[in-house]
Amino acid sequence: MKASWFCMLSLFSVLVFSISWAVSDSSAEELFLICLSNHADPSNPISTSIYTPNNSSFLHVLESYKRNKRFMTAETPKPLVIVAASHVSHIQAAVVCSKYHGLEMRIRSGGHDYEGLSYVSTVTFIILDMFNLRSIVIDEASETAWVEAGATLGELYYAIANKSKILAFPAGVCPTLGTGGHFSGGGYGNLMRKYGLSVDNIIDAEIINANGTVLNRESMGEDLFWAIRGGGGASFGVILQWRIKLVPVPETVTYFKVERTLEEGVTDIAYQWIQVADKLPEELFIRAQPRVGQIDDKKTVTVSFIGLFLGLAEDLFPVMNRSIPELGLRLKDCKEMSWIETELAFAGFPEGTPLDVLLNRTTSVSYFKYKSDYVREPISKAGLEMIWKEMMELGTMLMQWNPYGKRMSEIPESAVPFPHRAGIIFKIQYIFFWQEDGKEARDTGMGIVRRMHDFMTPYVTKMPREAFLNYRDLDIGNTVNGNKDASVYGRKYFMGNFQRLVRAKSMADPDNFFKSEQSIPPHLPY
Q1: Disulfide check for 498: which of 7, 126, 282, 490 has CB 3.0–4.6 Å away?
Q2: pLDDT exceeds cutoff 90 at 108
Q3: Beta strands 136-139 and 144-148: pairing type?
């Protein structure tokens, strides 16, 4: 947007002041809407991007990007207004007017925040919804792309695949994830052992600060650019777009998914996986996914081993036979395909699904609670047997174990705010879904995943017990009663990088306009 237009905002502020005095009996909503109208670029009217509770589409827009039914109840607080920005001036107006009228702003990219912090608050708030800002511009010559924050991973992958068969980007395997939140929290996927995280491959960004100013890497400075790559962009401003570095992949890669049960010796297989998962060649990523199932009315544990190899099956077999022969991988288990097809496979789509499914933004919703952990010391066979026993007692528990090592171990802990690097064997995601409504079902579901998390205490990192920001978890601390818990969750998410994040926050947003229950505070709590 032209600088001359934004310079006019101060003139409109005078008008807003006079209106706010003259219309003293108007509601907060009316005053906010007047402010928005006055601060948006007239050539890009904001009126069609505003949804209030009186609008027939309000609930549809609000619910369309909610992924967790825990935050879709009648009791869930709803925003005063939703601003579904379709132009940068709409974002600037929303920031300026929210700040002036003392309204909290929640910024939603794809709606996957596990605790709903991108669309729920306990105080009067608005939602700045980014789903209309989804432009993706790929420069094949420089192997880079500009990606707006409202674009999904599926849309990004689809755009890359339409340009090249040998370029990719290291990010998640859920196609409906919004790039605004996914990247700013770190962003990981099945290319991480070869290329690191999403944030390790971001080379520029545009962010709108608390004054409504658009900043790029040069104008924001290296401290803020460092902070938004893994420290959670919503603590510092509104991410407008990212410039990412695409990475090379072979035209043909290999995917496999095999499952083994307790009766098939899965304890020995999982034990060997733990020994080698972080030491395998960087071209090989194998996720282990334990879950509870049944065989002939008897509970068992089944572990899915889901792999991506950046090469041909004939080159994969010698690696597997040397490293994890216990798995018994066979040629018929392996499927050679393009990188983009493996993204469909990891996302659970059947073979042969058209690529344009990646453009679908709708997804099923359920009640869920997730938690995270990191493992630095190998788990013994006896430990695994105890874990399986606990899982079967709890019922339909599911975990994902994602291997680290190689490129993840080479990047320093302080390179970006994400600190979980050298020494990590694998990361754990605890997953529990339920479909029943009501408090009893909610308490049971939350209790199951918390109990499993507590049970795993002897096997995971300590002092601090590390956690992953993108697996948001309010159990590890929140700011509901002030910032006293910020150091607790700050150390778990960011370890030694937390203090630098606080310093970056104090410079970028000293008044703490951009905040949530787990945001970065502008000063260290006492």
Answers
A1: 490
A2: yes
A3: antiparallel
Mean pLDDT (whole number) for 157-186: 98
Residue bearing the bigger pLDDT, 28 or 460? 460
Cα-to-chain-centroid distance, residue 209: 21
Buried b (16+ CB within 10 A) or exposed e, 493-511: bbbebbebbbbbbeebbee
Residue 220 has pLDDT above 90, yes or no: yes
C-alpha 66 chain-centroid distance: 14
Cα–Cα distance measured from residue 334 to residue 340, given in angstroms and rounded to the nearest whole number: 16
The C-alpha atoms of residue 414 and residue 493 are separated, in whole angstroms, by 13
How many whole angstroms separate alpha carbon 211 and alpha carbon 222?
19
Retrieve residue 339's tokens. 């990188």
Percent helix, strand, coil in the chain (nearest 5)? 40, 20, 40
pLDDT, one tens digit per residue, over 266-317 is: 999 999 999 999 999 999 999 999 999 988 889 999 999 999 999 999 999 9
Q: What is the pTM of this model?
A: 0.94
Q: Helix 498-508 vs helix 486-494: angle between axes, to the nearest 10 degrees?
A: 120
Cα–Cα nearest to 404, from 468, 499, 327: 468
pLDDT at 526: 58
By three-state DSSP, how is residue 438 classified? coil
Structure tokens at 195: 């290329």
Q: Is 443 exposed, middle or buried (0-12, 13-18, 19+ CB in 10 A)?
A: exposed
- Measured over the CA atoms of residue 333, residue 339, residue 340 and residue 343, the dihedral's sign is positive
Contact 285, 346 (CB under 8 A): no
